[in-house]
Design a protein that fits this description.
Layout lengths: L3 H18 L9 E5 L2 H7 L7 H5 L12 E4 L6 E2 L7 E2 L13 H8 L6 E4 L3 E5 L4 E6 L3 E7 H6 L6 H4 L2 E7 L3 E7 L4 E6 L16 H17 L9 H7 L11 H9 L7 H5 L2 H24 L21 H9 L1
Helix pairs in contact: 1-11, 9-11
Length: about 325
């Protein structure tokens, strides 16, 4: 599951980039690039589709060029998704992208999409492209990176993903600039919709929609406890991870930090957490505090300082309140 802080950091990166280039020409979408797999290249693309790196090095073998960026089109079968989730098309699917009469119509259709803005949900980044919205669900090892045309043509597209050390999961080409979602393993999920309501991942943001978040948590607890297939003796941290439809943005280190802020043990069972109003209230309040700290600090400091903001994760030692020390000694 993507971490709340990581999603927000990606969103702020795009917002800062948009602010810097907003006074120039409109960011009109020209095409979409991916680092295709060998199977996708063999099935859907000819040699002419491969990026300029392949054209500049015609003597290079197929294996070394297997993961160079590919300019995909309306007929692409390129799908991306999580390791266990349903895969979704990278290119806008029908009915918006019906089979055109000519390639000229495809270009004209894509050029109607202009980047207007971006916002974050608990575990996705949503791009406003005018006629369509693109929701990127970030999984592990995914981040966003804007490039200039010169950087893209002279550096990124000139080497394979193996030499780069990362893959282009999906890159939106706006002409002078390219907005790329880079990943280690091509695991991310794109969702297209003609309105925000059409997007499938709709979380109540713990920071901006706290009352809606609390309502979703209460509904989930009632449903979860009444389920006959639910074992209440499992660890609460695992239950929170599994309920990403409610607790979106709580990943492997956020859960530890939130439990720490709430003064809760990570070894609590589901029953011990969700059956105790005081504990679940402290958990929700701690998640809000974590989100509040994230919003404040990401705007004021560099992302490289983020590890120093964490209290527990990756730390050999941490501080405790006097109350927590007493509880630790007692239990």
């Amino acid at each position: 599951m993507p971490e709340y802080t990581e999603v927000l950091a990606c969103t702020y990166t795009i917002q800062r980039w948009l602010s810097a280039v907003n006074d120039q020409e409109p960011l009109r979408l020209n095409t979409i690039w991916v680092d295709a797999t060998e199977k996708e290249l063999n099935a859907d693309h000819s040699a002419a589709d491969i990026s300029t790196a392949d054209l500049d090095h015609p003597d290079s073998d197929a294996e070394s060029d297997a993961h160079l960026g590919v300019d995909i089109g309306w007929d692409s079968q390129c799908l991306r998704g999580g390791s266990t989730g349903a895969h979704q098309p990278v290119y806008p699917p029908p009915p918006w992208a019906d089979r055109p009469d000519s390639e000229y119509n495809v270009v004209e259709m894509l050029h109607t999409l202009v980047l207007h803005g971006v916002h974050a949900t608990l575990c996705t980044v949503v791009l406003d492209l005018g006629k369509l919205f693109l929701q990127i669900q970030l999984h592990t090892h995914v981040t966003v990176q804007p490039y200039t045309r010169e950087q893209w043509d002279s550096e990124i597209s000139q080497v394979t993903s193996a030499k780069r050390g990362f893959r282009i999961g999906m890159a939106l080409d706006f002409g002078e600039y390219i907005l790329a979602f880079v990943t280690l393993d091509n695991i991310f999920t794109p969702h297209w919709g003609q309105s925000l309501a059409d997007l499938p991942i709709q979380h109540a943001d713990v920071y901006h929609e706290y009352h809606a978040f609390l309502s979703a948590v209460a509904t989930w607890i009632d449903t979860h406890r009444l389920s006959k297939n639910t074992k209440q003796l499992g660890l609460a941290v695992n239950a929170v991870h599994g309920a990403n439809c409610v607790f979106g943005g709580i990943g492997v280190y956020t859960i530890i930090e939130v439990f720490y802020l709430a003064g809760l043990s990570v070894f609590l069972t589901e029953y011990e957490l969700f059956s105790c109003p005081s504990r679940i209230a402290r958990f929700c309040e701690a998640f809000w505090m974590f989100a509040h700290h994230t919003h404040q600090c990401l705007r004021q400091a560099q992302r490289r300082c983020y590890s120093y903001w964490l209290h527990v994760y990756g730390k050999k030692a941490t501080n405790m309140s006097l109350r927590m020390v007493q509880l630790r000694q007692e239990y």
